[in-house]
Amino acid sequence: xxxxxxxxxxxxxxxxxxxxxxxxxxxxxxxxxxxxxxxxxxxxxxxxxxxxxxxxxxxxxxxxxxxxxxxxxxxxxxxxxxxxxxxxxxxxxxxxxxxxxxxxxxxxxxxxxxxxxxxxxxxxxxxxxxxxxxxxxxxxxxxxxxxxxxxxxxxxxxxxxxxxxxxxxxxxxxxxxxxxxxxxxxxxxxxxxxxxxxxxxxxxxxxxxxxxxxxxxxxxxxxxxxxxxxxxxxxxxxxxxxxxxxxxxxxxxxxxxxxxxxxxxxxxxxxxxxxxxxxxxxxxxxxxxxxxxxxxxxxxxx
Length: 302
Prior knowledge:
Helix content is 33%, strand content 25%. It has ten helices and 13 strands. It has helices at 50-57, 75-82, 99-109, 114-122, 138-149, 168-183, 195-201, 237-242, 263-275, 290-300; strands spanning 8-17, 24-34, 39-43, 65-70, 85-87, 156-160, 187-191, 204-209, 212-218, 227-232, 247-248, 255-259, 280-285. It has a six-stranded mixed β-sheet, sandwiched between helices. Strands 11-12-10-13 form a four-stranded antiparallel β-sheet, covered by helices on one side. Strands 2-1-4 form a three-stranded antiparallel β-sheet. The longest helix is centred in the middle third of the chain and has 16 residues, at 168-183. The radius of gyration is 24 Å and the shape is globular.
């Protein structure tokens, strides 16, 4: 039977650093759920509270108010009992450690010695296995961090800024790995500034700003579009008369963005525009990407 309970749950969580009089509120009244088997991203500007949220989720920090649970347990108890695959924002093993030896030691501790060679191959580290960590570039260190974090993937995977330092090819590879893990039933929590990749790998994006949730944004395109771009053969007042919310998308007067409630309304208004003299050559659904929606949500919250 499928377990419908959330993997991670925050209920009215606030976190203050310091005292009531002189402290700083890093999170304010945050409630959220991360469903089991999902990939959920936390996005927002620097200082939004993402690191604090991750610290609370992993049990590194305790909430000032509210409750946090992982798998219906207190985070520290869950981590001790089950473990979590975790990539910190600043992955920094000792500079003198050797890449291959480090991964083999961690794999042995996991009881899966063969996992080290698999990880070295998967993350393109074979040519660097004999190097010390201090010799690696920023991008190679990040790949080493991902290799170590995902040696033996746990039920819960937490990746804090995993795209940092990766070139475009390895960002694609990371996306492929995350989608594989998601398909295998793992729950993945990601913090990232790369909204293009977030949109491709996560099912939801939780937008944080100034310690508050500004929105929970679905990354998939809506099944029924409500925004369309209409192309005209020539400028015409017929379109504006039929679509009172039409906005010009360029300076030619022949391309407009319109919004409707459903396909029936679109058909009715297009017919009215044509009857009013508009010569329509194309109508295409317009999906607002995640970056646009994040920008709009932040602007509306100010």
